[in-house]
Amino acid sequence: MFISLQLAVVLALQLGNVFSYAIREFDSLAGLSNDEIEKFARSVKVVGAQPPPAPISDTSAKLVHDIFHPFIPLFPGQQRGPCPGLNTLASHGYLPRSGVATPAQIITAVQEAPNAHRGTQVTYAAFLVDGNPLTNLMSIGIKSPLTGPAPPSPALVSGLSTHATFEGDSSMTRGDAFFGDNHSFNETLFQQIVDAANLVGGGKYTVNVAAEVRFRRVQDSIATNPQFDFGNPRFATAFAETVFPLAFFIDGRSTAQELDLDVMRSFFQDSRMPVGFHRRDGPLDLSTLGQQIQVVMSAHQFFPGFNNGTVNNFVPDVGFLGTQTNQLCALVEHFTNNTLAQYPNPKGALRTALNQNLDNFFSAGVGATCVRPNIFP
Fold it and tell me: What residue spans define the domains of the chain?
């Protein structure tokens, strides 16, 4: 969901293999040889990494479903993925309606429409792992079947839907990747939210409902998905995912901490803001978000870990627990190592772009806590 806005919310790009299908401008370059990357660079305008945009100046509550940002249904070929928030931004034109955007466009859009924190570091973490550093473009969607067969690992092809980068198991309204579709709205899963809302939320989505939904989804994945992965980075993002609707999908003129289920469905299923929707007043208070996450985590006993090849065979990974600082730096290490695995020996403009995006990532605040690795000296 809106995981791309905070901890690990963000975009991942599709990747093409020049020998299996033509590389598009927003496809990732990971897994390609230097010769293949050079061939691609000669066919496009090389933009390279760009510095983050400035924060927006007006953060007051205001109408965001306005005449300049009408809802337009999805057209064939446009990209949408597992994140209802980013999907909605594209369907209303805050992001390019194609679903292909630059990091700067994403950072600005998540400020303009939902009034979210800039989320610079997670956007550039995603870009490092799955973006196209030469064209500076990313996709919020999936690999198109029109592009032919997927290239071999470590190449990535599925945009934000790439499993285990930012998308993860036990999503609230999207199925686990093991079952074949981790990006489409799942009515059965939404009905589980409805059931929990009727049980503990008086028919509305509240923080207590979020806690119940998170627990049920984890238990369901343990019982049905032999490849269930609830470790790093998914453990760190799964809880924020459940409280983001309370932060961004409630009309900014309301002081209620409960979300109407019809409004929730509009965002999750249709990628559509209600008519007359106003954004929240002021950017997201991270301390408030942290308090809600703590409510969700404290309601049941959760452990990071994974199913060991069979269902109901959950192996805890207690080493990932600890201080919030340790968890943050574990995420940093995860995405840094992922980048190095995909680009073991980058050269020229690609190397320069990767270093710039690493700087963008750490200059956003992560560097104050975690050490920036010098992986591309």
Answer: 28-56+89-167+346-376, 168-320
